[in-house]
Amino acid sequence: MDIVGLGYMGLTSAHVDDWRTYAPEVLGLQVRPTEGETLFLRMDDRHHRIALHPGAQERLAYIGWELLNRVAWDECLRILQAAGYTAEIADEALCAERAVHAMAWVTGPDQVRHEFCYGAAFNTHTFLPGRPHNGFLTGDGGFGHIVVTVPEWTEELDHFVEQVLSFKWFGSGADIGKRRFYRPRRNHRTHSIGYSIVPGMLGLNHVGLEVNDLDDVGIAYDRVLERGYPLMATLGRHTQDPVISFYHFSPSGFPIEYINAGIEDSAAHPFVEGKPESLSVWGHKFNPDAPTPATVYPATESVGR
Ligand SMILES: [Fe+2]
């Protein structure tokens, strides 16, 4: 399957109103003016990259994978069917809400609703960050990354990720056997999705947003501390994926990793599929009082999707 990158994501939240100030003022995202209940957040000239839907629980609602064009999307549907996944095709109203030409979805063995789309709406020279900001790294690599918690790494999930989605393994960081990071094959990022393996648990572990300027990481760090959003980990530089980042809890109770200085070509990077002995070169001191992400729940809990 020829996925270009991470196109968009959706969350449900009981705290959507808190995001209306947090997203622009702390993260620098643009709040898209809309009359509906869903809050659309922009990182670039796309219609949106993150959608927050009002809901009773803090949950990852869907991940939107972007295919290059109609031909690649048709091929994607054939691959899903051949692998035994029955894709549901989005109607016109849902495609309009996602702001894409066409979309289909399946629920993966990770219990995540994976959406596959092409033809995302955009409007050039319209992105206006929510605060003075030098922009987000998006472009042809998609935006950032999403890390999903799963109770175990099964053969079915391995097949779905590596054979059906055709993702390329990047590594496990310093947590061999506990984490797995992947990227679409044509993508230059180190990872667009990661899996955190926690027995008995499912859900959203964290979301990574990548910005162009290290100073924007520093400014976000200041605002997180000033406004009292709990830290999950201090500023630091990772070892295998040598970004500078910090982790804090969003108003929805899941961590956001705010990132700068990612490597430009992951395929040529010497640490690809390497085995680092530490999580970070410096920093990333974990907050011992950090709560469990509100988006992670017991795998036995049935969730309506
Ligand atoms: Fe991350």
UniProtKB/TrEMBL annotation:
It holds the Pfam family Glyoxalase. Keywords: Dioxygenase, Oxidoreductase. Residues 5-119, 142-261 form the VOC domain. PROSITE patterns: VOC. GO terms for molecular function: dioxygenase activity. The keyword Aminoacyl-tRNA synthetase does not apply. InterPro entries: Glyas_Bleomycin-R_OHBP_Dase, Glyas_Fos-R_dOase_dom, VOC_core. This is Iron-dependent extradiol dioxygenase. It comes from Nocardia jinanensis. The gene is bphC.
